[in-house]
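Handout, tutorial session.
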Amino acid sequence: SVRLTKSVESIERRFREEFLPVFDTEMYVLEIANFEKLATPELFAFVDRLREDFVTSTHVEIETVNIAADFHMARAKQAIADAGLDPAALLGSAQDAAPARALSEALALSEAQRKPHLVARLGHRSGFDYELSEPRHSETPEHLEALCGLEASGSRDAAGSGPELADDVKALIETARRYQVLKEDAKHESLRQLAVLRHALMELDRRLNLSGLCFYLTFEELAELQTSGAAELRPVASRRREDREKLLAMPALPTSLTLAQLEAASLATAAQAAGDISDLKGICVSGSVAVAGRCCVVSTEAAEAGRPIENFRDGDIIVCSMVHPAW
């Protein structure tokens, strides 16, 4: 914690002034590259190299920012709570981050200009950003319709506004907010590399006549295709795709869940042992105490489209496969 406190300036400076300019230049070249001109062995090598670079370099930089952001957010939350105030009301959201800026800029444009703007700024993103099999917004710009129709959101309060706060608490809030913006920007930029990787995989998929099955193979299995061909792995990938389609076709969850059901869902041990995939499974990602409320169950299709949640009321618990930026 001492090191993170002392490095509050250096982590941000390193990312924005050292890592990002080099990364941006490399991504610009790769984003306009024509993978069709690479020989198949070169394409395999490129996929392997890009994946390795993302795991060992880009993601390391992002995780450094994430750890620092979470640390500073926790310090600010604790200081605000100690002052008897609500952390959520003072910390707000990362409205200055790249995705939020893109949406804000789009709202100031004409309806005809909005979609091209969002494709240019958010085209490398997806409803499920880290899922390589999911099309990017540049491939399916119609998914941006929900974003194009957003109403301008209210501006957040500046740090230090509202209740009187001690100077040290104000400083913690400012740092936490700044690092939340940095965290969102770091993720936003890093996803450009995954978008390039997806496009390279799509070209590999086309050459090997896999019809999208490459996304159901591990990178190690993909490498095997260079020597063994697709005959052995095609049934494996097909089976995995069928399993995914079955899971997606499962009926929506009930709107009422007991605490016992939620506990069982978090553990999921009994269902996994029995091989039953029909039970609800999940992981607790926020909070440390039990809460109760009416559930609003959102289908995957509705979540991906970012449509308004029907009958949503304050205090409801949203059950969904993803949180769409439009929300």
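The second record follows below. Compare its token runs with those of the first.
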Amino acid sequence: MSTLDAALDILQCPSCGGVLVAADGGASCPQRHHFDRARQGYLGLRAAHKGKGAPASGDTVEMLEARERFQGHGFHDPLRAAVLAAVPADARGWLADLGGGTGWYASAVLDARPELRGVVLDASVPAVRVAARAHERLAAVSADVWTGIPLRDASVDVALRVFAPGSASEVRRILAPGGTAVVVVPDADHMRELGHGLKLLKVPAGKADEVAVSIPDAALVSRAEVRSRVALTVEQALDAVFMGPNAFHQDRAKVAAVLEGWSAPISVTLAVTVLALRVEV
């Protein structure tokens, strides 16, 4: 049985919350909502939600390529190590990487925690196409986790949310008793240097403190500050800007023109907080 087939035990219909079973090249619920399994190996669980507009489309191919290049230089390796350290050493059952993109973090966790199986849920179809091939114990699902997480109540033992927004109450709903949520929050000075001369999105101060108390009935069990200064070329700085949500608000040529006027290498602060919160049994 593939990991995606096994994941039907924890997935639910995004339209009605019903149980999903394998059917006709995909999955269906008792209300006859049907969802296709793509030939690339992921399950499409996208549905319109009344009053919430069209489902999000997620990261573009260009954003994913920029992030892959940036991660390929090792700039996020300390962050990935901190995420792994926040996952209990004896974790078993199911891991859900919410807004997990290509499964870069989930794959590292699965390598180190052999008793876990995982599912990446992301709105980006290009991302889940990659995630479907990222790890043999990782399933990929195209879903808008901002409007609702198509996972059953108390079905996962570890939930990752790395740089991804979403509902704390939904995370609580899907966590099993004793389950752990690992949340990565950028600090206010994260990549602050790139904001000089550019109108980039800003993270409010104290965001990590808010997240630390956001999940009902969950206790903070660890908090790690991951900070470093990296020296970037102009191309690497461009990737830092365009691998995230700034890509939806900026023109690459205009940003490149600003950065090329700076003296390279460009010194940039990477500052995030990794929180682990455990649901009380």
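Points raised in discussion: The mean pLDDT is 93.
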